[in-house]
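Input set for joint prediction.
Command: fold jointly, output tokens.
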Amino acid sequence: MYRTFTCGELRIAHVGQEPVLAGWVQTIRNLGAMTFIDIRDRYGITQLVADENTTIELKDKFEKLGREFVIQVKGIVRERSSKNSKIPTGEIEIDIKELTILNKAAVPPFTIQDDTDGGDELRMKFRYLDLRRETVRKNLELRAKMAHVVRNYLDDLHFIETETPVLIKSTPEGARDFVVPSRMNPNQFYALPQSPQIFKQLLMVAGFDRYYQIVKCFRDEDLRADRQPEFTQIDCEMSFVQQEDVLNMFEGLTRHMFKEIKGIDPGEFPRMTYADAMENYGNDKPDIRFDLKFKDLTTVVKGKDFKVFDDAEYIGGICVPGCGEYSRKQLDELTEFVKRPQVGAKGLIYAKVNEDGSVKSSVDKFYAPEDLSKWTQIFDAKPGDLILMLSGEKDRTLPALSILRLEMGRLAGLMDKEVFRPLWVIDFPLLEWNEEASRFHAMHHPFTAPKPEDIALLDTAPGTVRANAYDLVINGVEIGGGSVRIFDSELQAKMFKTLGFSKQDAENQFGFLMEAFKYGAPPHAGIAFGFDRLASMFAGLDSIRDVIAFPKNNSGRDVMNDSPAEIAQAQLDELCLSLVAPKQKN
Amino acid sequence: MYRTFTCGELRIAHVGQEPVLAGWVQTIRNLGAMTFIDIRDRYGITQLVADENTTIELKDKFEKLGREFVIQVKGIVRERSSKNSKIPTGEIEIDIKELTILNKAAVPPFTIQDDTDGGDELRMKFRYLDLRRETVRKNLELRAKMAHVVRNYLDDLHFIETETPVLIKSTPEGARDFVVPSRMNPNQFYALPQSPQIFKQLLMVAGFDRYYQIVKCFRDEDLRADRQPEFTQIDCEMSFVQQEDVLNMFEGLTRHMFKEIKGIDPGEFPRMTYADAMENYGNDKPDIRFDLKFKDLTTVVKGKDFKVFDDAEYIGGICVPGCGEYSRKQLDELTEFVKRPQVGAKGLIYAKVNEDGSVKSSVDKFYAPEDLSKWTQIFDAKPGDLILMLSGEKDRTLPALSILRLEMGRLAGLMDKEVFRPLWVIDFPLLEWNEEASRFHAMHHPFTAPKPEDIALLDTAPGTVRANAYDLVINGVEIGGGSVRIFDSELQAKMFKTLGFSKQDAENQFGFLMEAFKYGAPPHAGIAFGFDRLASMFAGLDSIRDVIAFPKNNSGRDVMNDSPAEIAQAQLDELCLSLVAPKQKN
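tokens >
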């Protein structure tokens, strides 16, 4: 062992001891007679000091040192004259007696401290240096602790952690698969799992009863800030349960994590139907840290010769407390905001409630004070509040209003990162119509069970069938999702048919699952949590990248080791593959 | 919830209660007036009973039931008249009041019981049914428990569990990589990791200090019984440690697992150099549950006109206690055994020590009784012992003798599966000469540190350089292996040169690692355990397949879902790939 103590361990009680420490040079301050060196490792920072009596040999070594050199020192612990109460080792320092340079370090391309001077690109390229920064490492430590807490909780409840294969069969349903050519089976391919969905269902058929796994999943999708080609799920499945049991079980897990990791009790998780979420928040993952619920004014505001409203299928709005003082400029900016293509509204109608209760709106010439007063009643608006309204086709206006609502939440400071408001969204539609493919797609996945009372509608009005599917939403982020599964092979076959699979295709792709269901499949249901997202939320981060040790960039590249990369012709030959020149993009 | 109790939970104390159970029909016995049904789930088996007073409705349902039907029953717990002490629920039975068939089951292709009638192929195809058998499920439960014990042990010692990427850069050194074509980076490929080696070393450069991960690894190798294309490692790395620290740390982990999982204290782990292992056991992973150590007789037996020995470079043997009574036939069989191409010896010389101390050998005409007596002294052979000797070129005879030793251990009943003898094999050679490639290969991997005192030999006699590399061997199986790593970029560059990498190739493949080493790499070392092998050893199995939920066969195929499989032309097009017809095998 190169050390007898870590750099975060020594206290006043160790004074007089002769420890050996090893770590990185954080700073060197040469004050002439005295030299101070801060030595750092994962556990902390300790101050080393050499005074005027230091040997020439040691002084020579100090000359050679630079930031991030790896050193080993032996010395005597003594009490500091000027203590540093900010760090746990701040009461002591080490009087250096011996110093060994274990490894040199070139000057790092950015400073290794919390407020580094390195830009994103540079820090990604030198990720191993970025990970040295305490803020970044703490995120990874938090992630590890979360995994530990999850595993112990589920182990205690008799979930069996079971590894499922990574080299599986490609199923074109859903997102795009990454594929892996097989050398031993030429011209055939494995796929990497988008989730262990089928395997965990087979484990239920196998009688495992309770399964979980913290598992890597893969999706070959065009990437966004919060997406990575490989990501991690907490994947769970249970037998002989109904939806209510799953919600309770995993509400329990989530509450346990909040308690253990954040020291927070987030209270009972409210339930909201998908229909209510869409109607009241325009969104299937509402952020309920703040209210600003939509009010539907469609029937109220028509018939006053205001053509925009009269022609609209839907008119809805929100009431933002305390924003009644917004200036003309601020309101113009909001109008520009909602007109951006990403929001897509045609315009914004506002109404301010003055201190005296009177209302000033952008449509005063169409609406009499008593009309406007009716609006304030609907919104229960108070003096100083701001009512904002959008109108148009309902299925375009609701999402626009949702974006406006979030923007107002942000502007009004209602999105505190240390406040957590979990929510179950339930009763999702089973199917969604895909215009392009001109067929229904499974909203969750093809194994999701319809609500029993809606099964008859599969033949007559498939689009209205509700599923026993649920999402766990925290602060407007979808953290988990799952469903009760179909466990009857006939219903599963019907589902495939509804999704436009030919009997042959269903057989080719899922034949073994339907076969498995013939041998006594139990009722079962499950859920998967996005572990990266959950960790980044717990860490108070906006992106999942900083809870991933070696993330990829938006082109799916690891810029640190410059992969993916070309492979040798011999490798291609062995795999019976040849490259095709990519099409030029226009 | 479909149940109020599991099928393994009810006891005499529950008599009178009205539980609801759910599970699979294990057996149905219709005795006319009485019907007995055993209902099974993961937790156990409970006997259900219906007597002559049962309703017609229930009796009708019994008629429909078959093996593996999934049922839900409600009834009253009562004491059994004839108790079954073999199962924990054997004192009670359930008087059935209601029964619901939750799912039908086709007759399974084999019986779901410990001694099933299903062959290997069939059980692999219907793996989800094979997993229902208690013996198989117990193996997976054991594996899950082992992972749990490992994680808690390492977490307590401040190892940070860190996920490393699965989509990485292909490095042709070592075994063959599986590759993954990138759609977003056409004509470029990711590789799947053979181990997280480089990433865990980068985590040490990043100051993580202690890392572990239970992680899937991938090797595109031709498969053997104990190999799978994807397998799981317990992967660990530590900073500021020497070899001795690593051995002690992971001896501690291994001893902890034996204690927690098997209730065994395997004692201190002996250490043996690679050179001693080869000389005394002909093998770098000796099974030391039994002795049968080689004796070198080369100098002793020459010069007696026995041409076979006189011409041999090496003559060695083992002494097997208690096998002196072997018949002519048994000795002939052994001779045939060693002459098999897999063993490759030319013949077998034996000497039996009779009860009176005299010796009977197959070469009596060349050796006088006093010569043979000298042999018995060398082997410390007792009356009733059997001496077996092989001769020839040393590097062919030692391995042959090793196989003979193991065979004799097996025949003499010295390989008890419930006895565990761990061993550290240390001081492996750094390099091994590859005849085919006409260059040195890294015996462990290119990042392994040579022993400091041997570094000078890298220039003059590379083949003699010893590495700070170690294997954990248990009962003749390599369970883990690791090394102290090179942490100096110049030494690493020299190592790549010794391995025949051009500067350009080393730069292309490992440039980022050597770059990383320039910024202050700490001394570090690590180890990886073959988790599948360790689990199969703890479970008392010969193959790793039964500790893997969904294993692949020897062609790398999952016969359950018939993968790998062809993919659609559209998928190939998106990936800018085309298929090449495989070459016909001769």
